[in-house]
Design a protein that fits this description.
Blueprint (H helix, E strand, L loop, with lengths): L7 E9 L2 E9 L6 E5 L2 E6 L7 E7 L2 E9 L5 E7 L2 E2 H11 E8 L2 E8 L3
Antiparallel strand pairs: 1-2, 2-3, 3-4, 5-6, 6-7, 7-8, 9-10
């Protein structure tokens, strides 16, 4: 679950064959600070960036991810996530066509079963 408050501006859920991942993005719109967390673990921190827009690249497992920061009206920003070069929505749709995933409980532990292409 994403925390409330601070500079948290975007939150995405990404389901991959290797597991479920939550991605949080903090953007200080006055300082340019950028923080990326995957499953609540901080993987990137940039302080005092003068360029408030642009892209932040990182990996989730073997998948290349990019958070894009684009200006909209006034001092507002739009944030989007791409995975392996595809917008998140298209990536998810493609994944659903090439694999099938089930979550089940085995001896009290949640287990992910994935049938499909190897990544």
């Amino acid at each position: 679950m994403a925390k409330v408050g601070g500079d948290l501006v975007a939150y995405w859920e990404l389901n991959l064959p290797s597991g479920a991942f939550s991605i949080e993005f903090e953007h200080g719109t006055t300082s340019g600070k950028r923080i990326i967390r995957v499953n609540a673990r901080e993987i990137r921190r940039e302080e005092w960036m003068f360029k408030l827009v642009g892209d932040e690249n990182f990996k989730v497992g073997k998948h290349q991810c990019t958070i894009s920061i684009r200006p909209v009206a006034g001092f507002s920003y739009e944030y989007s996530l791409t995975v392996d070069g595809k917008p998140l929505e298209k990536f998810v749709k493609h994944q659903s066509k090439i694999s099938q995933t089930w979550l089940c409980f085995v001896e009290g532990s949640e287990t992910r079963i994935v049938l499909g292409e190897l990544f």
